[in-house]
Design a protein that fits this description.
Helix content: 25-40%
Largest sheet: 8 strands, parallel, barrel
Distance between the termini: 7 Å
Order of helices and strands: EHEEEHEHEHEHEHEEHEHEH
Number of helices: 9
CATH topology: TIM Barrel
Strand order of the largest sheet: 1-2-7-8-9-10-11-12
Number of strands: 12
């Protein structure tokens, strides 16, 4: 059986942490990835009813907590933590950032999910994040979103790198450093790189596919299975 070489950790993004270490977007999942050499990780944030940024992908808690009736944006933080407690420990952004300061080798992509735009302007979102991200971490975090207005506001009000998640038709009007897109869009890699933008492809959990996409020129591969793809497999 042909052995496939491991993928360098500098090419992998632990997507919502490493699922081998815990539920997605939990501190345990990020700790597990970092302990196994991750240099990049990605998390998602939503805002609660009381406008606290929490680390969670879905607005509706149907998938993670079997509660289709509960939405993050409509629920106070304390209530949300109680609802989630039987399934996982909900982490707020401040807690994750405090941990990040202890792992300076890790770059964290923070994806700002769009539902908060129904309540806050993009500028207000950026200002809240600017107040929350410690200055020493500005070189360690990259704020990303599919919402172009949010990215433009972050570029105007926060001194960190940004990235666009290519799931909406309108691109940011300001310059951004990264683009994240489906692995099926790999034929556009070179056109983005010609603009000086680094390309990350998602979500790839197969070693052979990841290697092929890197050979096609991708800068980064997002994976749920960081510790598996970063090991030698046969």
């Amino acid at each position: 059986m042909q052995m496939l070489e491991n993928i360098p950790t500098t090419k992998l993004v632990a997507h919502r942490g490493d699922r081998a270490g815990g539920i997605e977007n939990t501190l345990a999942a990020f700790e597990y990835a970092a302990a196994r050499g991750a240099r990049y990780a990605e998390c998602d944030i939503q805002f609660t009813r009381d406008l606290v940024a929490v680390v969670i992908h879905d607005n509706r808690l149907e998938r993670l907590c079997n509660r289709p009736d509960v939405k993050v944006v409509q629920t106070e933080l304390a209530d949300l933590q109680q609802i989630c407690s039987d399934h996982f420990k909900l982490c707020d952004l401040s807690e994750l950032l405090s941990w990040l300061q202890k792992v300076p080798q890790l770059t964290l992509f923070i994806e700002i999910k769009p539902p908060i735009r129904r309540r806050l302007t993009a500028r207000a979102i950026a200002r809240r994040l600017a107040d929350q991200i410690p200055a020493p971490l500005l070189q360690q975090v990259v704020l990303i979103s599919q919402n172009a207005d949010i990215i433009d506001a972050c570029n105007n009000h926060i001194g960190c790198r940004t990235g666009w998640v290519a799931e909406s038709p309108r691109q940011p009007s300001t310059a951004f450093d990264y683009i994240f897109m489906s692995s099926q869009q790999s034929n556009t890699i070179s056109s983005w790189q010609a603009r000086g933008i680094r390309v990350g492809l998602y979500t790839v959990n197969d070693l052979s596919q990841a290697r092929a996409l890197l050979a096609a020129g991708a800068d980064l591969i997002e994976t749920d299975q960081f510790s598996c793809l970063a090991e030698t497999r046969g």
